[in-house]
Amino acid sequence: MTQDLEAILTAADAAARSFADTEPHARAKALVAVADALEANADELVGIAMDETGLGEPRLRGELTRTAVQLRLFADTVVAGAYLDVRIDAADPGFVLGVRPDVRRYLVPLGPVVNFAASNFPFAFSVAGGDTASALAAGCPVILKGHSGHPELSRRTAEVVADALAGAGMPAGTFQLVTGQEAGVAVLKDARVKAGSFTGSIPAGRMLADIAAARPAPIPFFGELGSVNPVFATQAAIDERGAVIAAGYVTSVSGSAGQLCTKPGFLFLPYGHGLDEAIASAAAEVAPHRMLNPRIAAGYRQRREVILGTQGVRVIHAGDIEIHGDGQGSATPTIVAVSLETLLDERDTLLEEAFGPLSILVEHGADAALAELVPQLFEGNLTATVHAGGDEAGGALEALVRVLTEHAGRVLFDGWPTGVAVTPAMQHGGPWPATTNDSSTSVGTAAITRFLRPVAYQGAPEALLPAPLKTANPWGVPQSFSPAGESVHWGSKA
């Protein structure tokens, strides 16, 4: 595929201002048009995805539907306008600190964004996925770096997206595709690009984040990288529903061959938990699942061998990884167990993420101070999960939840971290190395704020104000208004 990067960058730059100024309903209709087009082409796109990724049809159709729903959610977000965070301070000659001018602040689009697509979610985190949807919703043109694991799907989906946006009247250059690592890096380095987003490995994400930071004018870079997503189950929870916990654990570990950023990598259980048989039985029922591509299959096989070869590892269900003649691999779940002492002794070997259907039970004594151990074992994670008894609260459990909140972006109770709901309140992010920016999310309506920056207008004539800041409020967006005279009452509500 020949690609003229200069033409692509020029087109994105030329589209930036007019796309940013698009009236909310027009931009929202464009997002809905993309959602409609994806669903209209679902049969073709899902077929291509099945061939290139090895993922099953039900999973892929569900993922495409999720992608369309996400686009529609952002369409409503754009129309509602609260994401603009409009604040208006009226001119106040009696302001307590001296005369206050009229000041009006809101959030504006950053400009062109380069999005590096993910391999493991060919729809939801790839061409038209969350990063693309939120950037477009913010009013930023997107240059999408397609993933080499599904090149034909990337190309065809990009055509669908670009055609839908053009048909909805969006400027030329609003959405474009580039392919190849060198092209992606070149785009990230270009001064016309104002932000980057990425879903993938820690080494690749760190490399791209460093490039973004090292530019003459550094730009924000939002990378979702690695996460092992620890789970903690108390004895009371096991006594109440041990079989349910065992089955849910195996399902969460083995889904999509464990190639999910939220897969539970560690399950902490008290000694004598008695779940070995139930876990092994559930794992034995899981059929082989093809991994996404030969590189991932080879990496998983190597990581699995390292873990199985570590002293102190006890096998609960061995599972398998079979590499075929074309390099593709098919895997069944591998579940092993270690003592807490072994995990501490072998942390350099065992704590690294295993991207595939492998997870480690960590067995500990009833007196283990898990809240104190978490900072020793884990950096940042996307999720952390607690399974507790129905009447458990306070004490050690409360301390554990508090420390997990400091180490994860989403804390779950009595559930499993795989399956990220597309809802306004969702948080899909976390401290390093889960992401490169722990104050952001890549799922939920708050994801739009990654691609915006604040601007204030002081003493501006009404005619020169942008639509969201005008007193007449032609876009009908929420405006937070601070009237004159208010400052003399500050502190009275304390």
From TrEMBL:
Domain of life: Bacteria
Keyword Amino-acid biosynthesis tagged: no
GO molecular function list: oxidoreductase activity, acting on the aldehyde or oxo group of donors, NAD or NADP as acceptor
Keywords noted in UniProt: Oxidoreductase
UniProt-listed Gene3D superfamilies: Aldehyde Dehydrogenase, Chain A, domain 1
Domain Aldehyde dehydrogenase: 3-294
UniProt name for this protein: Aldehyde dehydrogenase (NADP(+))
Organism per entry: Agromyces archimandritae
Organismal lineage: Bacteria, Bacillati, Actinomycetota, Actinomycetes, Micrococcales
